[in-house]
Amino acid sequence: MTDIGELHRLARQIRLETLKMLTGLGFGHYGGCMSIVETLAVLYGAVMRINPADPDWSGRDYFVLSKGHAGPTLYSILAIKGYFPLEQLKTLNHNGTHLPSHPDRLLTPGVDATTGSLGQGVSIAAGMALSHQLAGRENRVFTILGDGELNEGQCWEAFQFIAHHNLHNLTLFIDYNKQQLDGPLEEVIKPFDLAAKFSAFGFDVQTVRGDDIAAIYDAVMPVRSGEQRPLVVILDSIKGQGVAYLEQLKNSHHLRLTPEVQLEIEKAIAILEAAYV
Prior knowledge:
This protein is α/β, with parallel strands linked by helices. It has helices spanning 4-25, 30-34, 37-47, 71-81, 121-135, 153-164, 185-188, 194-200, 213-220, 244-248, 259-274, and strands at 27-28, 62-65, 141-146, 170-176, 179-180, 183-184, 204-209, 231-236, 255-256. The protein has one domain: Thiamin diphosphate (ThDP)-binding fold, Pyr/PP domains (Rossmann fold, 3-Layer(aba) Sandwich), CATH 3.40.50. It contains 11 helices and 9 strands. The strands form 3 sheets. The chain has a 5-stranded parallel β-sheet with strand order 2-3-4-8-7, with helices on both faces. The protein has a two-stranded antiparallel sheet with strand order 1-9. It is globular.
């Protein structure tokens, strides 16, 4: 039986390490990193078959971070799981690092796909899932897309491809945090009813709160059969999720640390650190 409390603890650790990493760098995509913390805790803590000692293990489940600007959150869980030392997180975006701002599968152990150009990651994930399906393999594939990323037409081409081939071994997460680089989704390009759109595209749809670890786990833990449609989980999340100061900002998509912002982030770090005492 999965220990949900332990997954909450893992999420706190991911959030803490990500905040420390970005704050050490002095800038970064704070908002969108925070809003996928709980999902990564569930995937890497309870759902995915992984082997940190052998990142290229053929029997592993695959993960593609289509919203590649949230790479620091992925690095945090990979380090926590032992793919590389935690100390290496301090090298984010430094010269010669193995942790660039966006994931690179040739540089970082545990990264299955190079991402950053929005819209492309989901196509990579679809190709992975189709290859496993054709070969009769049991590997599952998971990918997280940003809600602003859905402005890319390539995403919808990929969704149609996924549904057409009934890639039931692929699960999509939509990080519906309602903000993108240029502002609120409702002002940039209205998303309308995402659940209805995905259903019309041929997906099974579940909507859960982005910080509801138990609900995320329940949505994705069962292995889907070929008689089921591909699954999309819409994460009703908050930009900056889990950090009160970031949640209240008008836009926390990308921040450069002023003295005021740094002070608030350091307070949040202290609160998370105190949770381990």
